[in-house]
Specification:
mainly alpha, Four Helix Bundle (Hemerythrin (Met), subunit A), 6 helices, 0% strand, globular
């Protein structure tokens, strides 16, 4: 069943992307933007937990969730670069990593090869990035801004390290030749 609680949580996260972009780039409301992406991070955590707890895991959800994660991350990092929260070379590197892996997925689909499953480290990378963003949004607050900036970059550094490491892992797994049994 495609319309279940975990997939609805992922859909809420997807709908938060344009809301975040409006609040951050147009309305210039960093606190409201913080709430939207903090809720996005929370729904990312909950959708998998709920799917397993309620036995509502689906193939659709397994593909929908990481696709929304990539959309979410791309939208936030581009918005952050526009507002000078992140450097453009870093944003371009993250997007290039995701585009390369998208080509891998397309190649797997065309060749009829099973998709590479997301690893624990891949989930940890996304978790760290999704938790870094809300903290980075609060860096301009007078009293706690410096601590939010530090916490945000701590999560971001771990997340980015794991993000690129797992990207290399996924790529190596995808290009690994398939063993053919001798007859």
């Amino acid at each position: 069943m495609m319309l279940n609680i975990p997939n609805m949580l992922t859909l809420v996260r997807a709908l938060g992307v344009p809301l975040f972009l409006y609040l951050f780039l147009v309305a210039e409301q960093p606190l409201a933007s913080f709430i939207v992406i903090a809720l996005g991070a929370l729904t990312d955590y909950l959708d998998g937990k709920v799917a397993r707890a309620l036995n509502q895991s689906t193939d659709f959800g397994a593909k929908f969730d990481p696709a929304v994660d990539r959309l979410y991350i791309a939208a936030v990092i581009i918005a952050f670069a526009i507002k000078d929260y992140l450097p453009w070379p870093l944003v371009i590197a993250i997007i290039a990593r995701d585009l390369l892996l998208l080509l891998v997925v397309i190649s797997q689909r065309l060749r009829g090869v099973a998709y590479i499953e997301v690893t624990f480290l891949g989930k940890a990378a996304t978790f760290n990035l999704l938790y870094a963003f809300p903290f980075l949004l609060l860096q301009d607050l007078s009293v706690i801004g410096v601590w939010c900036y530090r916490a945000g970059w701590a999560f971001a550094i771990w997340g980015l390290t794991l993000y690129f490491y797992t990207g290399i892992q996924y790529l190596l797994r995808a290009v690994k030749p398939v063993k053919v049994k001798d007859k």
